[in-house]
Specification:
This protein is α+β, with helices and mostly antiparallel strands and about 200 residues long. It has a single domain, classed as Immunoglobulin-like (Sandwich), CATH 2.60.40. The protein is about 20% helix and about 55% strand. The strands form two sheets. It has a six-stranded antiparallel β-sheet with strand order 6-7-3-9-10-11, with no helix packed on it. A five-stranded antiparallel β-sheet has the order 1-2-8-4-5. It is elongated. The chain starts with a helix and ends with a helix.
Length: about 200
Protein backbone atom coordinates (compact mmCIF):
# COMPACT_ATOMS: atom_id res chain seq x y z
CA UNK A 1 0.00 0.00 0.00
CA UNK A 2 2.77 2.44 0.98
CA UNK A 3 4.64 1.62 -2.23
CA UNK A 4 1.54 2.39 -4.32
CA UNK A 5 1.12 5.74 -2.57
CA UNK A 6 4.79 6.58 -3.13
CA UNK A 7 4.55 5.76 -6.85
CA UNK A 8 1.43 7.92 -7.16
CA UNK A 9 3.13 10.87 -5.43
CA UNK A 10 6.20 10.60 -7.67
CA UNK A 11 4.00 10.47 -10.76
CA UNK A 12 2.15 13.62 -9.69
CA UNK A 13 5.43 15.44 -9.05
CA UNK A 14 6.79 14.47 -12.46
CA UNK A 15 3.66 15.78 -14.12
CA UNK A 16 3.87 19.01 -12.11
CA UNK A 17 7.45 19.83 -13.11
CA UNK A 18 7.62 21.24 -16.71
CA UNK A 19 10.42 20.21 -19.05
CA UNK A 20 12.99 22.88 -19.81
CA UNK A 21 11.74 23.01 -23.38
CA UNK A 22 8.35 24.13 -22.03
CA UNK A 23 9.85 26.76 -19.74
CA UNK A 24 11.76 29.05 -22.05
CA UNK A 25 12.93 29.54 -25.61
CA UNK A 26 15.25 31.98 -27.37
CA UNK A 27 15.46 32.47 -31.13
CA UNK A 28 17.17 34.78 -33.61
CA UNK A 29 14.54 36.45 -35.81
CA UNK A 30 15.44 37.19 -39.42
CA UNK A 31 18.81 38.22 -40.87
CA UNK A 32 21.32 40.57 -39.24
CA UNK A 33 21.14 44.19 -40.38
CA UNK A 34 24.53 45.58 -41.39
CA UNK A 35 26.01 49.07 -41.34
CA UNK A 36 28.75 50.80 -39.36
CA UNK A 37 27.44 48.50 -36.64
CA UNK A 38 25.13 45.51 -36.96
CA UNK A 39 21.98 44.39 -35.25
CA UNK A 40 20.00 41.20 -34.81
CA UNK A 41 16.43 40.65 -33.68
CA UNK A 42 15.78 38.05 -30.99
CA UNK A 43 12.66 36.57 -29.44
CA UNK A 44 12.28 35.06 -25.96
CA UNK A 45 9.29 32.91 -25.04
CA UNK A 46 7.98 32.68 -21.50
CA UNK A 47 7.22 29.23 -20.18
CA UNK A 48 3.72 27.84 -20.31
CA UNK A 49 3.35 28.26 -16.52
CA UNK A 50 5.57 31.29 -15.95
CA UNK A 51 6.13 34.99 -16.58
CA UNK A 52 9.18 37.26 -16.55
CA UNK A 53 9.70 41.01 -16.29
CA UNK A 54 13.50 41.35 -16.37
CA UNK A 55 16.15 40.10 -18.79
CA UNK A 56 19.96 40.02 -18.64
CA UNK A 57 21.61 39.68 -22.06
CA UNK A 58 25.32 38.78 -21.96
CA UNK A 59 27.86 38.23 -24.75
CA UNK A 60 30.11 35.31 -23.80
CA UNK A 61 32.72 35.40 -26.59
CA UNK A 62 35.37 38.14 -26.72
CA UNK A 63 35.22 39.18 -30.37
CA UNK A 64 31.90 41.05 -30.07
CA UNK A 65 30.64 43.93 -27.96
CA UNK A 66 27.49 46.04 -27.76
CA UNK A 67 27.03 49.42 -29.38
CA UNK A 68 24.69 51.73 -27.51
CA UNK A 69 21.79 51.33 -27.21
CA UNK A 70 22.49 47.63 -26.68
CA UNK A 71 18.80 46.60 -26.66
CA UNK A 72 15.85 48.41 -28.21
CA UNK A 73 12.58 48.04 -30.17
CA UNK A 74 10.72 45.89 -27.64
CA UNK A 75 7.49 44.18 -28.68
CA UNK A 76 5.29 41.55 -27.08
CA UNK A 77 3.83 38.84 -29.31
CA UNK A 78 1.69 35.75 -29.22
CA UNK A 79 3.09 32.43 -30.41
CA UNK A 80 4.16 28.94 -29.43
CA UNK A 81 7.32 26.82 -29.31
CA UNK A 82 7.65 27.15 -33.10
CA UNK A 83 8.20 30.89 -32.80
CA UNK A 84 6.41 34.23 -32.35
CA UNK A 85 3.51 35.32 -34.53
CA UNK A 86 4.74 38.57 -36.08
CA UNK A 87 1.19 39.36 -37.23
CA UNK A 88 0.06 39.66 -33.60
CA UNK A 89 2.52 42.02 -31.95
CA UNK A 90 2.17 45.19 -29.93
CA UNK A 91 4.57 47.62 -28.30
CA UNK A 92 5.32 46.98 -24.65
CA UNK A 93 6.64 49.05 -21.76
CA UNK A 94 10.12 47.53 -21.76
CA UNK A 95 13.29 49.61 -21.68
CA UNK A 96 17.05 49.29 -21.28
CA UNK A 97 18.00 49.57 -17.61
CA UNK A 98 21.80 49.32 -17.85
CA UNK A 99 24.52 48.34 -20.31
CA UNK A 100 28.25 47.69 -20.49
CA UNK A 101 30.42 46.46 -23.35
CA UNK A 102 29.16 42.88 -23.07
CA UNK A 103 26.18 42.94 -20.69
CA UNK A 104 22.78 44.62 -20.89
CA UNK A 105 19.77 44.52 -18.58
CA UNK A 106 16.21 45.39 -19.64
CA UNK A 107 12.91 45.26 -17.77
CA UNK A 108 9.25 46.06 -18.17
CA UNK A 109 5.75 44.69 -17.92
CA UNK A 110 5.42 40.93 -17.40
CA UNK A 111 5.64 38.64 -20.43
CA UNK A 112 3.49 35.52 -20.22
CA UNK A 113 -0.02 34.27 -20.79
CA UNK A 114 -1.45 35.36 -24.15
CA UNK A 115 1.54 37.54 -25.04
CA UNK A 116 4.25 35.02 -24.22
CA UNK A 117 7.02 36.23 -26.56
CA UNK A 118 9.27 39.27 -26.10
CA UNK A 119 10.97 40.47 -29.30
CA UNK A 120 13.79 43.02 -29.27
CA UNK A 121 16.80 44.18 -31.27
CA UNK A 122 20.38 43.79 -30.03
CA UNK A 123 22.99 46.16 -31.51
CA UNK A 124 26.65 45.15 -31.87
CA UNK A 125 29.82 47.09 -32.62
CA UNK A 126 31.46 46.74 -36.05
CA UNK A 127 30.52 44.39 -38.89
CA UNK A 128 30.48 40.59 -38.75
CA UNK A 129 33.39 39.22 -40.81
CA UNK A 130 32.33 38.22 -44.35
CA UNK A 131 28.71 38.98 -43.42
CA UNK A 132 28.40 36.04 -41.06
CA UNK A 133 28.82 35.59 -37.33
CA UNK A 134 29.26 33.24 -34.40
CA UNK A 135 27.82 34.81 -31.31
CA UNK A 136 27.91 33.29 -27.81
CA UNK A 137 25.12 34.48 -25.52
CA UNK A 138 23.85 33.88 -21.99
CA UNK A 139 20.28 35.05 -21.48
CA UNK A 140 18.65 35.12 -18.05
CA UNK A 141 15.02 36.07 -17.46
CA UNK A 142 13.43 36.43 -14.04
CA UNK A 143 10.19 37.39 -12.37
CA UNK A 144 11.37 40.00 -9.88
CA UNK A 145 8.31 39.48 -7.65
CA UNK A 146 9.69 36.13 -6.44
CA UNK A 147 13.16 35.85 -8.02
CA UNK A 148 12.35 32.75 -10.08
CA UNK A 149 13.39 32.41 -13.69
CA UNK A 150 15.47 30.58 -16.29
CA UNK A 151 18.75 30.93 -18.13
CA UNK A 152 20.16 29.58 -21.37
CA UNK A 153 23.69 29.62 -22.83
CA UNK A 154 23.71 29.36 -26.63
CA UNK A 155 25.97 29.79 -29.65
CA UNK A 156 24.16 31.55 -32.49
CA UNK A 157 25.64 31.43 -35.97
CA UNK A 158 24.93 32.47 -39.53
CA UNK A 159 27.14 31.42 -42.44
CA UNK A 160 27.98 33.35 -45.59
CA UNK A 161 25.09 31.69 -47.46
CA UNK A 162 22.52 33.06 -45.01
CA UNK A 163 21.80 29.80 -43.20
CA UNK A 164 21.55 30.33 -39.45
CA UNK A 165 20.88 28.37 -36.28
CA UNK A 166 22.12 27.79 -32.74
CA UNK A 167 23.48 25.20 -30.36
CA UNK A 168 22.65 24.98 -26.64
CA UNK A 169 25.53 24.67 -24.17
CA UNK A 170 23.59 24.90 -20.92
CA UNK A 171 20.19 25.90 -19.58
CA UNK A 172 18.23 25.61 -16.36
CA UNK A 173 16.12 27.28 -13.71
CA UNK A 174 17.05 30.27 -11.58
CA UNK A 175 16.31 29.36 -7.97
CA UNK A 176 15.19 32.28 -5.75
CA UNK A 177 17.48 33.15 -2.84
CA UNK A 178 15.50 32.88 0.39
CA UNK A 179 16.56 35.41 3.02
CA UNK A 180 15.17 34.56 6.47
CA UNK A 181 12.98 37.26 7.97
CA UNK A 182 14.12 38.75 11.32
CA UNK A 183 11.15 37.15 13.08
CA UNK A 184 12.11 33.72 11.74
CA UNK A 185 15.71 34.16 12.94
CA UNK A 186 14.51 35.20 16.42
CA UNK A 187 12.16 32.22 16.59
CA UNK A 188 14.97 29.88 15.60
CA UNK A 189 17.26 31.29 18.30
CA UNK A 190 14.53 30.92 20.91
CA UNK A 191 13.97 27.34 19.81
CA UNK A 192 17.65 26.46 20.13
CA UNK A 193 17.77 28.07 23.55
CA UNK A 194 14.73 26.11 24.70
CA UNK A 195 16.23 22.82 23.49
CA UNK A 196 19.44 23.56 25.41
CA UNK A 197 17.49 24.42 28.58
CA UNK A 198 15.46 21.19 28.37
CA UNK A 199 18.63 19.13 27.93
CA UNK A 200 20.21 20.75 30.98
CA UNK A 201 17.10 20.09 33.07
CA UNK A 202 17.04 16.44 32.03
CA UNK A 203 20.75 16.04 32.85
Amino acid sequence: MKRSILIAVVAVLLLAVPALADMMDLQAVGDPELGNSWSQKFGIRAGDWDTFNQMTFEITNTNYAFESPALSAFFKLTGDSNGPDIKDQTSTAWSLASETGTKAVASGTAIGGKYNWLQFTAKFDGDPPDNHYKLGLKITVVDTTDGSGWYTVRQFWQDSTGVYGYTISEEGKVVPTVIPAPAALLLGMLGLGLVGWVKRRIA
